[in-house]
Write a structure and sequence with these properties.
The complex is a heterodimer of chains A (about 240) and B (about 80). In chain A, about 25% of the residues lie in helices and about 25% in strands. With about 240 residues, chain A is an alpha/beta fold. Chain A has a nine-stranded mixed beta sheet with strand order 2-1-3-4-11-10-9-6-7, sandwiched between helices. Chain A has a two-stranded antiparallel sheet with strand order 5-8. The longest helix of chain A has 17 residues. The two termini of chain A are about 15 Å apart. Chain B has one domain: 2-Layer Sandwich (Mth169, Chain: A). Chain B is elongated, with a radius of gyration of 17 Å. Chain B has a three-stranded antiparallel beta sheet, covered by helices on one side. Chain B is of the alpha+beta class.
Chain lengths: ~240, ~80
């Protein structure tokens, strides 16, 4: 199955995403150039991390007008799986494909450290290889990860099971110090109402090899997507 | 025509930069400062073919602000248009 990885000017984890996808047998990464207005024959799309367009104006604000983003929106509207990581998450927010917006980290500092994430809903295409309450240890590295949304949006996210990951401590508890950026309700990742578009600030693509320091917890996200695609193929 | 756009964090939205500035000012001896909000100021020049009405220009800039210059979820904006000449 083919994973299309969008490359914007300033993307910098596009190669990491390629590498991560390539560690799964049967999964084939493929780059999608931001200037193309089609995503071709891919089974899933990843918007990688980085600093698209230098983060000018607001993170993701310019990238969302790239020609490829119209095709990404169509792909998502047809039920295709779209994963936005870090700057990819910010771009999905700016594009209105996910609810909410991103503010600067509460401490005004770029954060680069491992965080513990609690799986809040394991019944989605991006978390089905996990169980609710599972903890994932994955790295964050960002300056604008302070997720915000108005009270009505937050209530809807909660009611529809759209909050997939929250920042917690090593014991799985929500504490102020476990949250690296001040994100509303400790939210690290949210999906859309139809559960096929998912954005998260942490970088699962940097935790895919157990032999390396980053561990392999990020594999669960990609494995979930692959299992979802295999399942929908089996049903087709 | 010359356009000046002011983008500020929406009321009620936390502004980490504003908070940091507000805390820094008393350290320099400036007392009594509150409600600091750090936003953006954008200048641009807009071509106005003969016959362009003030209302059309206003609508045009308003749309730019909504679509790109500001993110209405977290930011408010105002603007001034100088017809000039």
């Amino acid at each position: 199955m083919r994973f299309g990885i969008v490359v914007f000017p300033g993307s910098n984890t596009d190669a990491d995403c390629w590498q991560a996808v390539a560690t799964f047998p049967g999964a084939e990464p493929q780059f999608l150039w931001h200037k193309h207005d089609t995503v071709g024959d891919v089974d899933a799309i990843i918007l990688p991390g980085g600093f698209s367009y230098g983060d000018y104006l607001r993170c993701g604000a310019i990238a969302r007008f790239s020609p490829i983003m119209g095709a990404v929106a169509d792909f998502a509207a047809d039920g295709g799986l779209v994963l936005g990581i870090c700057n990819g998450f910010q771009t999905l927010l700016e594009a209105g494909l996910l609810p909410g917006a991103m503010l600067r980290n509460i401490g005004l500092k770029f954060v680069c450290r491992y965080v513990n994430l609690r799986v809040e809903n394991a019944d989605t295409p991006f978390t089905r290889s996990c169980h609710e309450g599972d903890l994932l240890r994955i790295v964050v590295k960002h300056n604008e990860g302070n997720y915000t949304a108005d009270p009505e949006t937050l209530a809807a996210l909660q009611a529809n099971g759209q909050v997939l990951l929250r920042y917690v401590d090593a014991a799985g508890r929500r504490t102020p110090t476990a949250n690296p950026n001040g994100a509303l309700d400790d939210i690290a990742g949210v999906c859309n109402a139809t559960h096929n578009v998912f954005g998260l600030m942490p970088h699962p693509e940097n935790s895919v090899e157990a032999a390396l320091a980053g561990g392999a917890d990020g594999r669960r996200i990609f494995q979930s997507m692959i299992n979802t695609l295999l399942l929908s193929r089996a049903q087709a | 025509m010359d356009v000046r756009v002011y983008v500020t964090p929406k009321k009620g939205i936390l502004d980490p930069q504003g908070v940091a500035v507000e805390r820094a000012l008393p350290a320099l001896g400036f007392e009594g400062v509150s409600e600091v909000r750090v936003g953006k100021f954008i200048e641009l020049r807009l071509a106005s073919p003969p016959g362009t009405t003030a209302e059309q220009a206003h609508r045009n800039v308003d749309e730019m602000c909504r679509k790109l210059l500001a993110n209405p979820i977290i930011e408010d904006f105002t603007f001034e248009i100088d017809a000039g000449e």
